[in-house]
Amino acid sequence: MEPAQKALAYDVFRTLRKHRTDEAKFLNAATVVTTKLMSPTNLAWRVCGITEAALERFAAMNFKRKSGLKVQRAHLFNRADTTKQLVYMDTEPSAEEFIEFWEKRDRTVLCLSDQNRKILALKCFKFEEREAPQFPNLTVGYGYKDKEEGEFLRMLYASRKSTETVDVSALAGDD
C-alpha cells in the first residue's frame, strides 16, 4: 500500500471515529466507506487458501476461469465486524495499527458459492503469502490468469494427495 493511500485511509478512518454513533445505519455506511477505500489496495480481499471443492471445480474446468464456475472468496472475518471493532476501539489505533488490523482481517479463502457462509467450518489448502497477491482484487471479483493462477492451481491439484489441508478457522487465528 502506497504511503499516500495509507494516509488517506487513516484520515478517513479517524473521521469515521470522530462522527461515530450507535445507529446501525452509521455502521453500515462506515463499512461501505472503509471497504471502498481499501478495495483498490493490495491489502483487499487477499486470498490465503482454497477449499478442496473449489480446487476440484477449477480442475473440472481444466483450470480455466469460465462463467458459471461459482467459485468466490469468503472472508475469514465479517467486514462489518472488522469495521465495528476499528471504529469503536476504546483508544484510537495509530496509522500502522489500523493498517495491520485491516490487513490481518481482510483475508479470504476461495470456495464454492454454497460454502461461503460456513467457511470457518471447512478445511482448505493454505497459500503462502506473496509480495504480489494471487487472485488480486478487482472492482468486482478477483483476477485470474491461466498462466499464473491457473498454473498455480494445476500444480496444487497435482500435489493435493500429499498436501495437508488446514482448518480455515486456524487461518483466522485467535481473533
Order of helices and strands: HHEHEHHEEHEH
Mean pLDDT: 91
> Beta-strand level of the residues, as a percent range?
5-15%
Largest sheet: 5 strands, mixed
Secondary structure tally: strands = 5
Shape: elongated
Fraction of residues in helix: 40-55%
Unreliably modeled segments:
none
Widest sheet: strand ordering: 2-3-1-4-5
Number of helices: 7
Distance between the termini: 23 Å
- Structure classification: alpha+beta
Report Rg.
17 Å
Structure, explained:
The chain is an alpha+beta fold and 175 residues long. It is elongated. The protein contains seven helices and five strands, in the order H-H-E-H-E-H-H-E-E-H-E-H. Helix 2 crosses helix 4 and helix 3 packs across helix 6 (146-158). It has helices at residues 3-18, 24-38, 52-60, 79-87, 95-105, 146-158, 168-171, and strands spanning 46-51, 71-75, 107-112, 123-126, 166-167. It has a five-stranded mixed beta sheet.
